[in-house]
Amino acid sequence: MNFRLKAFQLHLLASAAILTCVLGALFLGWYHWPGWYLSGALRVVAMLIGVDAALGPLLTFVIANPAKPRRELKRDISLIVAVQLIALAYGTATLWNGRPLYYAFSVNMLELVQASDLDPADTELARRAHDALAPHWYSLPRWIWAPLPADAEEREHIVQSAITGGADVTAMPSHFRPWRDGAGDLRKQLMPVGDLRFFSGAEIQRLKRRMGAAGFAAGERNAIPLMGRGRPLLAVFDRQTLKLLALIGCTR
Questions:
Q1: Of 66, 151, 173, 229, which is most buried, counting CB atoms within 10 Å of its CB?
Q2: Measuring CA to CA, which residue among 112, 104, 142, 118 is closest to residue 231?
Q3: pLDDT in tens, 65-101
Q4: Exposed, middle or buried: residue 249 (CB in 10 Å: 0-12, 13-18, 19+)?
Q5: How far, in Å, are 70, 82, 138, 185, 198 from residue 60 at the CA level?
Q6: What is the pLDDT of residue 1?
Q7: pTM confidence score
């Protein structure tokens, strides 16, 4: 039993150390709040923890028989490690491709923009133009304004593309503008939480209670939804300075 426990502990320690480094780097760089929540990254993280930090060491505990020939034991552990590495590579690639790159204000909402959301052709166009807001592999999350273009024909093309499931303006870095440039439009879109159509009646009541508990007036024009892959968050702003004051969840 001591042999099994030692093998289990060593495998668990190594797996946990590698996983902590990978997830720590992704969290500190891209998935800090509210990135992990809006992107639904916890499902992938749970899979990685289940395979790499739980199942792998547990299988080692099961097969680590001191009576087994060392060559056979090394082969079995190597197979377990290989499966762990495949799961780690898959999970890391998924998190990397879905990493949050922008929090975009567009039309009447805020929206999380992940790396996988971006239109490749438009992204390359922005890079060739040396646009300061174009994404690169090292880019960290930024708050930007993504207005629809002034040209009526181009605007209609983008709107129709979004309606039919194609690229929206939030997927087109060549249209991105600095956050401060959209301040006037953002102020106009701030509403009392009760007037926002992005939340159900029960969610609105929950948000009102949470706003009151945090010291915010639910009846003021200070809120706008922040959308992602799951349920949205409520973004509360100071109406004068447009400083983000809080992000409030609507789930139980």
A1: 173
A2: 112
A3: 888 888 888 898 999 999 999 999 999 999 999 999 9
A4: middle
A5: 14, 13, 37, 58, 48
A6: 64
A7: 0.90
